[in-house]
Structure formats: structure tokens, C-alpha cells
Design brief:
Radius of gyration: 15 Å
Structural class: mainly beta
Strand content: 25-35%
Helix content: 10-25%
Shape: globular
């Protein structure tokens, strides 16, 4: 489940997915403090990926086998649990194939996909501290919590 949901995304993520939005995953090699991320970046809401990555503390990890991953809307599942009064968005696990040593990560950012980074809305940020060693890395989105859950 998400470690940080940007304030503007609270309560909107399930609606975005219901409206047919794809998501994109971006690994970071360096990241700002959680409290800084939560408030967002740029002049307004929502926070777009271009503003997020322009912040001095956030660096996308693109070296050594890391890369962005798009998850199409058809692969996402929304579960509404009336008993627990919660909504969960589930995504399939994602494998990063053999990132090489020295190309480590700190966080995994999930955005609503768009035509460019200036149109990709940052939704959630997940702790994703990986010391790369050449083995495959699995981003495990546990079905019990999904990549995002609200109650």
C-alpha cells in the first residue's frame, strides 16, 4: 500500500481509475522527505511529474536496467468493501529485470499516465529501497491492500 498519498489525490484515486486512467511507475534514486512530498510541488494542484522531478531532492532512476512501467487500466481492479468501509485499487506486481549493482532506488512513484511528464499527475509514493545486484526486482502490490487503499 502507498506510504504517501499526495493531499490532492486523497479520495480521487478510485475515481481516476474508474474513469479509465492508466498508471505509470517511476523509480527514484533519491527522494525528498515524506512530508515535503505529501504537500506536492509546483504552483498548484495537482502535482505533475515534471514539477515533482524538478525538485532538488527527487531523482528518477534510469540507469542499470531501471525504467518506467505503464500499467494499463484494464489490469487495475477496484474493490469496494462495504463491511470495512474501504476502497482499494489493486495493480499487478511488476518486475524490473536485472538492475545492475550500484543503481539503487529509494521510492517508487505512481502517476496517472499522460502524454508527457507535464500531464502526468503524481498520485502516490511508495518506499522502494532496493540495493541493486543484478537480480530481478519485484514491485509487489499485495492484493490485500492494493497499491492504494482508503477508509
Amino acid at each position: 500500500m502507498a506510504d504517501i498519498v499526495l493531499n490532492d489525490s486523497l479520495g480521487r484515486i478510485a475515481e481516476i481509475i474508474q474513469d479509465g486512467g492508466d498508471i505509470i511507475l517511476i523509480p527514484l534514486s533519491a527522494s525528498d522527505a515524506d512530508a515535503t512530498m505529501k504537500d506536492g510541488y509546483g504552483g498548484g494542484n495537482p502535482t505533475f511529474l515534471s514539477d515533482f522531478l524538478a525538485a532538488a531532492g527527487n531523482t528518477e532512476q534510469t540507469a542499470g536496467g531501471w525504467g518506467r512501467k505503464v500499467i494499463l487500466n484494464a489490469a487495475l481492479t477496484i474493490t469496494i468493501d462495504d463491511t470495512a468501509n474501504s476502497v482499494r485499487v489493486e495493480a499487478p506486481d511488476q518486475t524490473f529485470t536485472g538492475p545492475t549493482a550500484g543503481n539503487n532506488t529509494t521510492k517508487l512513484v505512481i502517476c496517472l499516465d499522460g502524454a508527457s511528464d507535464a500531464a502526468r499527475e503524481v498520485l502516490t509514493v511508495h518506499d522502494f529501497a532496493v540495493t541493486a545486484d543484478g537480480n530481478d526486482v519485484l514491485a509487489d502490490f499485495t492484493p490485500a491492500t492494493g497499491f492504494w487503499s482508503s477508509s
